[in-house]
Amino acid sequence: SWYYVFYLDKDASGNRRQKKKRGFKTKKEAQQALAEAINSINKGTYIEPSTETFIKFINDWYEIKKKNIPRSAKTTRINIDSYIIPMFDNKLTLGNLKLIHIDNFINKMHTHPRGDKEGYAPATIKRALDVIKAALEYAVNSGLISKNVAKKATLPKSTDKEMKVWDEHEIETF
User: Fold this and answer.
1) What is the pLDDT of residues 15-61, one digit of tens each?
2) Are 133 and 152 in contact (CB under 8 A)?
């Protein structure tokens, strides 16, 4: 596993602040990420990754947003409580949230056992993903993260069910 280290400006007490990021599979990946981080610092677009958990963030976001979305607030809360919170690790920080976490969420929703059925309907998955996208867009606009990783998530294809046509006997029975 590879990592990079670079130094930021000095903190209030005059000590150099160090930035370290781990978990790269190759030296080249680490070097590319380091170059991107330094480039964003030079451009003034660098955002220190948030250490707030994703679960706490989405709950806080809801409390702020529910006043602006009175008609859909109840549905949004159901999506957060029933689908989003149970599917995410409560230790995952907002700053460490990656596309793979969003894709895993979608996959879990798609395969989650529900009584005699497997997985939630594509429309349910899309509504839950839309809540995540809106929350992460707020995080981007608030300067908590640099990009909305949920925008690149891929939803499962909707499987249209074949329409069953009644025969004469079924029509008469109806």
Assistant:
1) 888 888 888 889 999 999 899 888 888 887 777 778 899 999 999 99
2) no
Look at the block and give the residue holding tokens 């000095």: 10
Cα–Cα nearest to 155, from 118, 126, 113, 119: 126
Structure token pair of residue 169:
């006997």
What value does the mean pLDDT take over residues 2-12?
A: 85
Torsion, CA 40, CA 30, CA 108, CA 130, rounded to 10? 10
The model carries a pTM of 0.72
Please give the structure tokens belonging to residue 134.
Answer: 């809106």
State both tokens at 65. 């947003």
DSSP assignments along the chain, one per residue: -EEEEEEEEE-TTSPEEEEEEEEESSHHHHHHHHHHHHHHHHHT---PPP-SBHHHHHHHHHHHHTTT-TTTHHHHHHIIIIIIHHHS-TT-BGGG--HHHHHHHHHHHHH-EETTEES--HHHHHHHHHHHHHHHHHHHHTTS-SS-GGGG--PPPP-PPPPPPP-HHHHHH-
Q: How far apart are CA 106 and CA 103, in angstroms?
A: 5
Tokens of 156: 């499962």
